[in-house]
């Protein structure tokens, strides 16, 4: 793998690619006896997140390496008014493909999201994690996140809540180039702008 990767908004035709990464991650988790993501990705939700500019893919040339979704949605079943929900950017559906795991790509995606949160004037980057995936919780803590609390609702599989200050970066992953589609041309194609290059 090159020492630089790209994080960019997913295109309209990449919902299937993200769903495929979800399924691949689900199979890997199952092999580790972890019950997370043992169901198909919600294609409608994926398409909506792509359309709204919240879903991103990490690539190395033509190869998909992972995906992350970031938005301002604070799940009201998890984040309370006292948490100041609008003060954070929320990262969801963070996936590194199993064939490139161990390359610290997740570190780079979280660093990128943390910097994005700071650029948006947010105080926090927040995630909610699968309640039964204790390894994931320890991973977030190793990346500078603090465990806020675990919300144990019977109808929700997620609920372990973590946050770290916006702008904080670990810097242990590959260098990354963050791109944003500031606008589209007359044919609907994105015109990329530079946001973050480490």
How many β-strand stretches? 9
How many helices? The count is 4
Question: Strands across the major sheet, in which order?
Answer: 6-7-5-4-3-2-1-8-9
Structure classification: alpha+beta
Basic shape = globular
Mean pLDDT: 88
For the biggest sheet, the summary is: 9 strands, mixed
Estimated radius of gyration: 16 Å
Low-confidence stretches: 194-198
- In percent, how much strand structure appears in the residues? 25-35%
Instruction: Work out the helicity level.
Output: 25-40%
* N- and C-termini, Cα separation: 16 Å
- Give me the strand/helix succession: EHHEEEHEHEEEE
Written overview of the protein:
With 198 residues, the protein is an alpha+beta fold. The chain contains four helices and nine strands, in the order βααβββαβαββββ. A nine-stranded mixed sheet has the order 6-7-5-4-3-2-1-8-9, with helices on both faces. β6 (146-150) and β7 (158-165) form a beta hairpin. α1 crosses α2 (43-51). Residues 194-198 have low confidence and may be disordered.
